Amino acid sequence: MVKKVLEGTCFRCGRKDVGAYISYLRHYICKECLLRFVELKVKRTIEKYKMLPRGSRLCIAVSGGKDSVSLLNILHKIMPNIEIIALHINLGIPSYSDECERVSRNIASMLDIPFYVYDIKAEGFSISDFYRTPFRKRMCAVCGTVKRYLLNKKAYELGADVLATGHNLDDIVEILFELYMRGSVEEIVRIKPVIRSENKKLVTKIKPLCEITEEETKLYATFAGLPLQASTCPLIYGSRMLRRKAIIEMISKDIPAYKHTFFKSHVKRWLPLLEKHVVAPDLKECSLCSMPSKSEVCSYCKIKNKLFGMVKESV
Ligand code: SF4
Ligand code: ZN
Predict the structure, then answer these.
(1) Nearest Cα to 142, choosing from 65, 241, 231, 64?
(2) Which end of the chain is more exposed for a tag (fewer CB within 10 A), N or C?
(3) pTM higher than 0.85 for the full model?
(4) From the CB of 139, is ligand 1 less than 6 Å away?
């Protein structure tokens, strides 16, 4: 929870005029220090995990939400010598996606960063079409598969070496929470700050905000005065992801460093062990779209075909 307060002193500079309280640190912080603190943390994360080799052509996925908008602003500021392009996927969700595109275009133009938009309708469907099918029960999972596929494909077509996404610490812990509970070892080993790729059609993926909490990105976006979309995705209600995040928040109230500790033990303890035992799958070309795939047909094409089949049946 972001608590705006007017009392206390900033734990970084001692100033009395504090802007916020960071709950996991149990400290007050002023506006200027918060901005610098977050930027410095992201810079250290990038260096620690060697996310951006010299000469990288970086594509940043921008959805219009606080995380990706903050990410674009931070990387633009701390990585002045890296070539950046912003990529937005318009998901075709009525009364939501067009605003997301407008905000994304806005921040890219404010920062003078080249902006590319891909409209999902070019694929013959929109994300809201899934809502009218049994996929409705796992909308965010389906949307995630579609976004991952299209972001990678478009970043590759744009000639990027690296694709950065705005996943923050809360997002990652929420996914890990579910995967560890289910024991999905093959998926657990894919959750890491950097997924390097040997395949030319799979761009290296990085998560520079993996050590920044949702509370911090909210504060950062607000204090930096960044443009943000005002509405919430209408398809998110009842999502299991929100329920898991609420549970993690409850735990964090008792154990403020819970998210940091979970993530750290995953990256430092479990990943090195698990990676020794989980063999990376051999990739072939999807017989339908020719993108890399673990099976004959990739997950994206499977989902898309199922959707088209369901729509046909219902006509
Ligand atoms: Fe997609 Fe879920 Fe995000 Fe909506 S809330 S854009 S359905 S991932
Ligand atoms: Zn495919």
Answers:
(1) 241
(2) C
(3) yes
(4) yes
